[in-house]
């Protein structure tokens, strides 16, 4: 990232990002690794210029195509939960969206794969993440219901959209001991952590969340 992108005008300054980090700390985020990535990730470059002045509020914002960039608290929380058992090599993300969650995960894992079902969002994320130099990330335009079997199995999988039922393929693409973090449900959603133990899967319900629905097929 170049100096200009990082410093920018006042509202996108380091001080503004530090305030967001303090907010996340107060809200219960404990992972210093995650907080330090949030402190250096330019979220204002992941939203439309017209919304850049709100990029460091702890809120979801529209990114077009009826989708939203996830709330920073939720991004931090899911990343913290995914990483809680130790470092991860291969990680799959479902729902690239703006690419912000992708950017937060990128420095924390070895190799990151991310799929998005809406083509215009996928294309914008490819351009943005390349320009910002996130080079351990591979993106694909596809329906995450099927995971991304060619690159699996994964140590961790994170989904940013809520299915009513956890897709079987995602469970199958976890390594033994692998972790899947995702929102599950319809009108009422819960953040869920699923851990693989051989052919058995343990499931832990965390907190209530609000995500866009996990939808089938692709949209051009
Ligand atoms: N973490 C992203 C969140 C984007 S919202 C960000 O911070 O910007 C969730 C995204 O999941 C949307 O872009 C939506 O199109 C995508 N999505 C929903 N169902 C999907 C599926 N089956 N496969 C791939 N992406 C999906």
UniProtKB/TrEMBL annotation:
Pfam family, one: PCMT
GO MF terms held by the record: protein-L-isoaspartate (D-aspartate) O-methyltransferase activity
One GO process term, biological-process aspect: methylation
Keyword Methyltransferase assigned: yes
Entries under PROSITE patterns matching the protein: PCMT
CDD domains in the record: AdoMet_MTases
Keyword 4Fe-4S: no
Catalytic residues (positions): 70
Top-level taxon in the UniProt lineage: Bacteria
UniProt entry keywords in alphabetical sequence: Cytoplasm, Methyltransferase, S-adenosyl-L-methionine, Transferase
Catalytic activity line of the entry: [protein]-L-isoaspartate + S-adenosyl-L-methionine = [protein]-L-isoaspartate alpha-methyl ester + S-adenosyl-L-homocysteine
E.C. designation(s): 2.1.1.77
Any one annotated GO CC term: cytoplasm
Family of the protein in this entry: Belongs to the methyltransferase superfamily. L-isoaspartyl/D-aspartyl protein methyltransferase family.
Biological role: Catalyzes the methyl esterification of L-isoaspartyl residues in peptides and proteins that result from spontaneous decomposition of normal L-aspartyl and L-asparaginyl residues. It plays a role in the repair and/or degradation of damaged proteins.
Name used for this protein in its record: Protein-L-isoaspartate O-methyltransferase
Species in which this protein is naturally found: Thalassolituus oleivorans MIL-1
